[in-house]
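Hi support team,

I submitted a single chain yesterday and got back a structure, but I'm not sure I'm reading the token output correctly. Could someone confirm the output below corresponds to the sequence I sent? I've pasted both exactly as they appear in my results page.

Thanks,
R.
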Amino acid sequence: MIPHKPTSFHIKSFGCQMNVYDGARMAELLEAEGMHAADAGVAELVVLNTCHIREKAAEKVYSDIGRIAKRDGGKPMIAVAGCVAQAEGAEIPRRARAVDLVVGPQAYHRLPALIANAVAGRQAIDTDMPTVSKFDALPGRRAGSPNAFLTVQEGCDKFCTYCVVPYTRGAEVSRPWGAIVDEAKALVDGGAREITLLGQNVNAWEDQGRGLHDLIEALAAMPGLVRIRYTTSHPNDMADGLIAAHRDIPKLMPFLHLPVQAGSDRILKAMNRSHDVTSYLKLIDRVRSARPDIAVSGDYIVGFPGESEADFQATLDVVRAIGHAQAFSFKYSPRPGTPAATMGDQVPAEVMDERLQRLQALLTEQQHAFNRATIGRTCEVLIERDGKQPGQRLGKSPWLQSVLLDGGVVGDLVEVEVVGAGPLSLVGVRPERAAA
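Hi R., thanks for writing in. Yes, this is the structure output for that exact sequence:
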């Protein structure tokens, strides 16, 4: 039994931007209960907001639980939230007895009640997927930085054979138009200047016949909001209106994260991706025709069951055909309960390792080339935070590149000339400083 209700908390989020958003919402919820944020070493409640996309991410949670339980000063209350909580439920406290409560990503609005149960020695596990929106039970938003995440859609109906999202996040659900607009306004009123719209398949969002492009157009009319982004998209939901929005709405940033996952039609079919290489490349061409300077990002899985060297070479060919500003790449990780986990012809780990190294070398080369191509250009940078050096600031370009510059106020949108580029960031100078 926990001796008393915690007065302080620390939330550690793993994985995707939606987990970052969920972590922020849990923090707001706990603060509304009178608790305050604290360092992990002293917080009376530690929440591990987990990711279940890859086995390594899930196993890291159990490692963290063991470490937290043995920390100096005594064990805090430990909560496991997020997708591992949803997937494993009551198995978590059986495997790790130090865990006091478990809450899935659709039930974290019930966190205060679960804490009360844990304090009272009652069962504190909730992995329900309620029909009542959790968002209605959460406190009002506030912005803590110039950029903010806003979830507009959750869940997935695509059932890719490697993916646990339909099982941990549920079916595709779109939040209502009015709730999104109200939350966006609250974020802007609190100081946010850029909002990133989130969803497992964010471009599948719809409400009463209106699509994501309609929502973006409405948010673009909001005074004080200067930038809009969205992620993650599915090729099958890339509607004509959304492509046109990249051409017609200046506040929609020229950046598109659109995962293809593999360059072999045979592997895409085995993944149940429902698009082929030709249709994907035509889609990228259409987006680039609408917005020629758009930066393209993607996801790639190497070593999917049955992937041959020829299949992998086809993936490298697609990468070369696209030319990425950035991309994420992973070794296939079998997730329990997914069809791919039981497929034959699993690719040996050493083969996956070698292929991933080749793929990442190509992607890194492309990202560096994209960054070098911006040298000499002038663009607007939204200053997000202080840099590591005295007087240094860090912001983002329209193409989501990190830009280091001297001086400026956090939250300002400033004109910057790019004078240097590395694989991961740019160096910028404000024209008036360069002239001085």
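A quick pointer for reading it: Residues 134-372 form a domain with the pyruvate-formate lyase- activating enzyme fold (CATH 3.80.30.20). Let us know if anything else looks off.

Best,
Support desk
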